[in-house]
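P.,

For your records, the input lines for the assembly:
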Amino acid sequence: MKKIIALLLALVMVVGLCACSVEKTTETQAPETQAAASGETQAAASTGEAVEISLWAFNIGGFTEASNWDSLVASFNEQHPEITVTVTPINYQDGDQKLTTAITSNQAPDIIFEGPERIVGNYAREGLMVDLSDLWTASGSDIAEGISSVSQLDGTYYMYPLSVAAHCMAINYEVFEAADALQYIDEETRTWTTDDFVAAMEAVRDAIDAGTVTVAVPGIIYCGAQGGDQGTRALVNNLYSDYYVTEDGTSYNANSENNVKALTLLQEMVNNKSLSANASFAASDELQAFANQTCAVSFCWNFSNYTQYAEQTQFTPFAMAFPSDDGKPELEMAGPYGFGVFDNGDQAKIDAAKAFVDFVCNDQTAGTEAVKTTGFFPVHADWGDVYADAEDADLRAPFALMSDYLGRYYSLTGGWTEQRALWWPMLAEIMTTGADVQTAADNYVQQANANIG
Amino acid sequence: MAQARTAAGGSKPQKKQPQTTQTSRTLARRETLSAYLFLLPSLFFFISFVVVPMFICVFYSFTEYGLGGVKGFAGLDNYIKLFKDPVFHRGFLNTLLIVVVAVPTVTAFSLWVASAIYKMHAVTRSFFRCVFYLPVVTGSVAITVVWKWILHPYNGILNQVAGTTGFDWLGTQSTAIWFIILILFTTSIGQPIVLYVAALGNVDNSLVEAAEVDGGTKLQVFWKIKWPQMMPTTLYILVITTINSFQCFALIQLLTKGGPLNSTMTIMYQVYDTAYRLNDLGYANAIGVVLALIIAIFSALQFKIAKTD
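Structure tokens returned:
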């Protein structure tokens, strides 16, 4: 009797545990878009072979929730009722961890929505992505050369782009006005020279000391190891018109004469308190400090950040290009954001994934909606100004202007991921410990080049 | 003695001994079987999700393993790289510092608080236990958000009170690790306090009273009577606090990400960073194996010392 009871108990426990795990799986799937369910119904009704594909989308612009994809998926299903698209939103905090886990356990999604840094630089380089050259041949003729070049690796296209923008910086217009620093910027072109930048930041510092403005510091060079490095990179590279990587792409370039000069200038500005540097600050901390008027400039600005912090800002965040010695900035691309298709070995899924990418990026109606959701600008030159009739066209205009200053794209240089881990310590060493700039930059370049391949 | 024999069954039952022995053996077998059956579900999950992954981890540590899968056998390369890696050296020293500082202070402070509150009125005792246990149940994300606010260079309350506006406590090499230890300390003391309060309540009072009657001082009573009886609890607290300190991850991930300049890098965080940011999974597994070995050695030493005591 006892044995039977023991067996029954064990059985109950096993079944209970299994039930728990099933419940957990259901919960994990819960955030996925409802469009999947509707698509499933349509797929069943279709005469074609039903295919289920998964899309993992980073939180780019307004694509923060799975529901943001609902209307696009629904439109797609009108043309392809046999394809079910399941959307899972991921973010930059733990997205890499989720993707690495999925890839290493052979459960990679069919489609990923991100930029070339991950799609081409990380995944295509590891041989995980599908060749998308056919999409480019069919519809990519009006996409700019700069975007086309970063979507491929060794001549094969692995990413199909949707939208693009330029990273820029921003100033607190009212603080600059009160500090009499507006004289140092060109409000029309939104540019300034390095000398103007230095003078403006000193004016803000003096205004803080005089109590004319209430911000705590003029600006913060964030050195914390988290995204947003494009801001500090662009700041350093523009000050004396140099590049992050040498022209032939064989070496990182922080130790060049002009970049060392730029880093030295920033170090001096930190020392004379016209800038501040914080090793514990990531880009998000700096953005928050800008939004709550702790500092008067942000080095990590774009339309997406503008909309994210719009409700918190009680001032006019005025988008500016990064300062450069000749007043001609070269900005880094935000994106281009687009799609990559993982090679999961199932041709039906690959074809379905390509059909979805083709629809979202090349169908002008769906594509315009998708571009607007990202908050950036279409990669298709033929589509023109998609925001022309938008209510917030005026707000977007400065960011459209920044696209005129787009410069070289570096993020596909070999060892990119590894060098990012080295950039922050170098910056922290120079800005917060007063280390010798040339030595720190040399060490960084030596270590970064070790992985360049 | 004869009465005792009779009471226990005397000589009569001896005739039936073979049958009794067989019955008791059968019973013992049944009980053993029942025990194994009860253990089976958890054993299944333990083997599936702990033991097997451990062996897989050891296997991968000898491979060149990246996002594209295993590229080849790396032999001892990952381990050789590890011993030459300055980030690992820094992480190892920081981990040791955290363990060496946090474990004794957590244990001593918990014992001190428990000694102070265990004789209090039940309501007061429960109140203090709740207060000290709160950080354990609050969750590390909430705690780090609060600490981030306290330590904020420009708006933080610490700088406002200390008059050091702008000082970056978590961004300065000399202070960051100590704040990590402090925060770890606040989140680690809850459970030991509860355990010590329970252990002190279980101390045999007759021995304490006897020692006091014999003229023992409070300190003597504590060391000679109470402390030995609390040794199993102390050993448990030492082991779990050591393991928690070695595996300190969430605080670092949420507060400093190992910075500034690796001053808060720990072995555990390096495992994560190497695997998920650098995608060097083979090397991350090698670091994980070394961390497991270090923890095993420390735990074994603690058991050994406790047994000797």
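Two observations worth noting. The interface with chain B takes residues 2-3, 6-7, 9-10, 13-14, 17, 96-97, 100, 103-104, 122-123, 126-128, 216-217, 223-226, 276, 278-282, 289, 292, 294, 417-418, 421, 424-425, 428-429, 432-433 of chain A (CB under 8 Å). Chain A has 18 helices and 13 strands.

Regards
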